[in-house]
Amino acid sequence: MKQYDVIVVGGGHAGVEAALAAGRMGAKTGLVTFRKDDLGVMSCNPAFGGLGKGHLVREIDALDGAMGRASDYAAIQYRLLNRSKGPAVQGPRVQADRVRYRDAIRHIVAEAPNVDVIEAEVTALELEGGRVVGVRIGDDSALLAKAVVLTTGTFLGGKVFIGDRSFPAGRMGNAASTVLAQQLRGLGLPMGRLKTGTPPRLRSSSIDWDMLETQPGDDIPAYMSFLTNHTIAPQIACAITHTNPETHQIVRENLSRSAMYGGQIEGVGPRYCPSIEDKITRFADKDSHQIFLEPEGLDSDTVYPNGISTSLPAEVQEAYVRTIRGLQNVEILQPGYAIEYDYLDPRALDLSLQLSALPGLFLAGQINGTTGYEEAGAQGLVAGLNAACMAFDREPLHLSRADSYIGVMIDDLTARGVSEPYRMFTSRAEYRLSLRADNADQRLTPLGQTLGCIGDGRRVAFEEKNGRLQSARAKLTAKTFTPGQLRNAGYKISEDGTRRTALELLGLPGFGFDVLETLEPDFKTIDEDTRAQLGREMIYAAYLTRQESQIASLRADEARAIPDGIDYSAINGLSRELADKLSRSKPKSIAQAGRIDGMTPAALVLILARIQAVGRRESA
Amino acid sequence: MDTIFALASARGKSGVSVIRISGTRAHDVARAMAGSLPPLRQATLRMLRNEAGERLDSALVLTFAKGASFTGEDVAELMVHGSMATVAAVERCLAVDHGLRLAQPGEFTRRALDNGIMDLTQVEALSDLLEAETESQRRQALRILDGAIGRVVGVWRRHLVKAAALVETAIDFVEEDVGNFDTQILAELRAVEGGVQSELAGQRARERIQSGFEVALIGPVNAGKSSLLNALAGRDAAIISDVAGTTRDVLEVRMDVGGFAVTFLDTAGLRDTTEEVEAIGIARGKARAEQADLRIILHPADQPAMMIETTDRDLVVRSKADINAMPNGISAHTGQGVDRLLDQITERLSAMTARDGVTVRERHQQAMQQAATALTDAIDKIAEGDYIAELVAADIRIAINALDVLIGVVDVEDVLGDIFSSFCIGK
Fold it and tell me: Which letter does DSSP use for residue B254 in this model?
């Protein structure tokens, strides 16, 4: 019988980040997966990052996770979304070569300290005294651990649908984890079903690329990892095409044969990633939808047509795809399918992603109702770190809405649960002006250093970069100018008698580094990267100052913890509806309670009063 | 929770005084005092007695059940004759004989809040109701209790959610070919900005309903301002004499005029003077009159020419009409024209408050001011073109958060919900 500090179940994006993070913390970690070859497999679209998601990748990277570096290794096209907008809402995104990504992850896992990969099916959780103490694997042996991270993705109770056909599977070509699903269901945990869809995969050589509009990558790539400084793989272009009325006609005529529309699927799909069936039904007035043709790799003959996920029968898929410009003679390599799977209501989790009712068990990824590699990886990272913290009997890591997108996501999940697969958007982050992709390292790497999950390579690189930033900031703050001085130097400035620091000037229109250099030649020594970073910070300076007090009160509310097991039904005056909602979502703090739908100030006062009453009783 | 009581109507001499008892023992105690209780919610005459069996007063007794009362608890209300002695005797009986606790200020309301009977806006409006000195204050407070705030600002909310959704679509779903919404965003924002600004414009008059209007009496020395004040007040509030310049400082008398709380300001008569104290009084009077909601300029019947510059907001009246028989003048001595003057004042004040505004409290004004500023910022940025979308989004968020005080929370899910129902998002 083998004893680990941490066992991670599942080798997808959540599982890999969880195992690597626990390993970086020094925990002896076992990563159990069906097949070693499946580590780092991208089962959906061949891309990482984007809006909100790019932020998550940078944050994972800032805590020394693998996703950023692996996706840079695999990147065959870089695009910074929203380049024309401000830095807070720019999202780095790459098209990733599937093979290269998997190779990169396998390499990182192989090199990782303290991580054993175990090829097996986990059939059960080992329970003892109301705690999870390990897992039982296929050969009926047990692996013991102080903490277990479950990252089962769509494998838990997974069921694939193509038209009227359906069969249990974790993804196409992989068995589902039905035994484990049964055990979890038996534990009486709050569970539900979600679904997601994939488009048919197309043979690249059967596409008429010449007649299509192409979409090249950026000339100056924005890398996913703070550690990457050059483009690694050859770069390619994607192409864009559109559906047309003929396509819609075929889909419409066959709607009843779609698994999603024929009623075979009970799970809820995401509104922001509708199937082609959904698009045509819900937006009947639109006669064309955009499709991105994304190559799955440099040497791959497979193309992922982003925008037409479906669960229609294979022959209908072929018929409608061939109505699309450039795809007249296309060959489908693998039909699109819908997959329905179990998730566990994430309100049952605490902020460290541990299941409150079952100490020792951490959950990450799609099992918590999220979708996307980045969301999964970020949760895996947090679950892995906290599993290690538990193994070492240390305080858990709780990220805040004020410090990261990861904090926003975990707070959303644990406080509000999900009604559809949860995906990150920048609009979910109320403090997005300060939570930028470009400063993820500034926000999180120091935290990671304190925690002990930052490797030497990153530590050195970060400290060097941070040193340059701090010294530039100090230089720019030390030097001040009166309006008179600026006017004499030939620059326009309001004559309000205010002495301004060079840093403040940087936030004003017309004061770039070119101007600052003429005022103080010493500024010439500040390097380009540092200049860019400081410039980005100053765009939002006025707004960030205003947000400070809000952030302070958020942190105060986050610090007002609501004790576990508070009986909301016993709070006099709390409506039944609200008491029910509170009991279900189990807010961990007044901040979370305040965001519960339908929460009233009066009710918050009541809860606050109740916490205070409990506190008084306990201290009395 | 212990059972509390307090005088629920204004303390002092009045026709009827209401003593409210709230808590688990409210009905028992009321029964002990009244002998028996009428059915819930039926006011019935009962003789109240103390524990020694002595009669306290014959009173209307009214009870409400837990969950259907002002505080959400069992409530009894005793409507007794409004003499201080009677109220004191009943209060003593409740406290001494029955051991109930006198409520802290606002404690009924707090219990109502704690019991989920009302939200904070309602609690605030209610505190106004309790303090309402006049009919118009009550009407306004009732309007809020009725949820009028929610209705007006609810429209703004819809515009703001739409505007936020459009801006966020352009940020978060830039990959979708959804187009440019600047014109629509501007329209949504301007609609709210206009509404907020016009609410703010109506604020001053409505605040006056809360705090009362100021009406200044001005005029030359010996025009009879102080006499008029006394006639209005029905008492000798001001010292009057035939000696010109008797009134030195600004004198205030507060009273009810046609349902409005009005503070009349008696000011020093205007004349050139070398006397230092009088000169200060005149300057002070002028300054106060400038800020008053209404100026009543007294033009004595025995003086031919008007010496004071008047504006639209002034009421000019001929005073001392008894000396120089003037049919439309007023006389503080005979009372001639005083009622008509009060009617004219009421009419003017009604006109000022005619705008059907719905927001009252200072915090509402601050919230709207903050929202208006943020909306203007957003509108200016878009109108200038080539704007930074996330800063416009931040402005809209500030406006939405500011108005939260009035209407509750607008959540990212509200915004996303609008986006996904309006656009076909998703690759």
Answer: E
A280: domain CATH number is 2.40.30.260
| Residues listed for chain A | 620
Is the CB of A282 inside 8 Å of chain B's CB atoms?
A: yes
Domain identity same for A406 and A273: no
Q: Looking at the structure, do residues A424 and A506 belong to the same domain, yes or no?
A: no
Q: Assign 3-class secondary structure to A121-142.
A: CEEEEEEECCEEEEEEECCCCE
Q: Among A251, A289, A427, A544, which would you mutate to test the B interface (most chain B Cβ atoms within 10 Å of its Cβ)?
A: A427
Residue A220 lies in a domain: no
* Closest chain A residue by Cα to residue B167: A427
- CA-based nearest residue in chain A for residue B425: A272
Please give the Cα distance from B284 to B268 (Å, whole number). 8
- What is the token pair recorded at A474? 């100090």
A400 domain-assigned = yes
Neighbours of A100 (CB within 10 A): 20
Q: Which residues 548-577 of A are in CB contact (within 8 Å) with B?
A: 572-575
pLDDT confidence band for A474 (50 / 70 / 90): very high
Q: Is residue A525 part of a domain?
A: yes
Q: Is A85 on the interface with B (CB under 8 A)?
A: yes
* Runs of H (alpha helix) within A193-273: 245-253
The half-sphere exposure of B335 on its side-chain side, counting CA atoms within 13 A, is 3
Segment B6-20 mean pLDDT:
73
The string of pLDDT tens digits covering residues A404-440 is 999 999 999 998 889 899 999 999 999 999 999 999 9
Spatial separation of the C-alpha atoms in residues A191 and A349, rounded to whole Å: 12
Say yes or no: A461 and A422 in one domain: no
Number of domains within chain A: 4
DSSP conformational letter for A412: H
Q: Is A426 on the interface with B (CB under 8 A)?
A: yes
Q: pLDDT, tens digit, for every residue of A506-559?
A: 888 788 898 888 888 889 999 988 998 998 888 898 888 878 867 876 887 787
Total residues belonging to chain B: 427
Question: Which of A41, A179, A572, A348 is closest to B24 using CA atoms?
Answer: A572
Domains of chain B (ranges; CATH) run 4-117 (3.30.1360.120), 148-206+359-422 (1.20.120.430), 211-352 (3.40.50.300)
Give the three-class secondary structure for A144.
strand
pLDDT bucket at A132, cuts 50 / 70 / 90: very high
Cβ distance of B426 and A543 shorter than 8 Å: no
Measure the CA–CA gap between B116 and A414, rounded to whole angstroms.
26
Give this complex's ipTM: 0.87
Q: Sign of the C-alpha dihedral, residues B366, B367, B368, B370?
A: positive
Q: pLDDT tens for residues B117-149?
A: 765 556 445 544 444 334 444 455 445 544 555
* Residue B243 sits at the chain A interface (C-beta within 8 Å): no
* pLDDT band for position A1 (cuts 50, 70, 90): low
Q: Rounded distance, CA B382 to CA B392, Å? A: 8
Find which of A271, A272, A412, A540 to mutate to test the B interface (most B CBs within 10 Å of its CB): A272
Interface contact B178, partner A, CB < 8 A: no
* Whether A311 and A378 share a structural domain: no
Q: Which whole number is the average pLDDT over A381-400? A: 96
Contact A201, A256 (CB under 8 A): no
A434 and A479 inside one domain:
no
User: Is residue A325 helix, strand or coil?
Assistant: coil
Beta carbons of A145 and A28 less than 8 angstroms apart:
no
Q: How crowded is the C-beta side of B108, counted as CA atoms within 13 Å?
A: 22
Would you state the structure tokens that stand for residue A17, as one six-digit string? 């980040």
A335 and A230: one domain? yes
How far, in Å, CA of B270 to CA of B260, rounded?
28
Judge: A89–B415 Cβ closer than 8 Å, yes or no: no
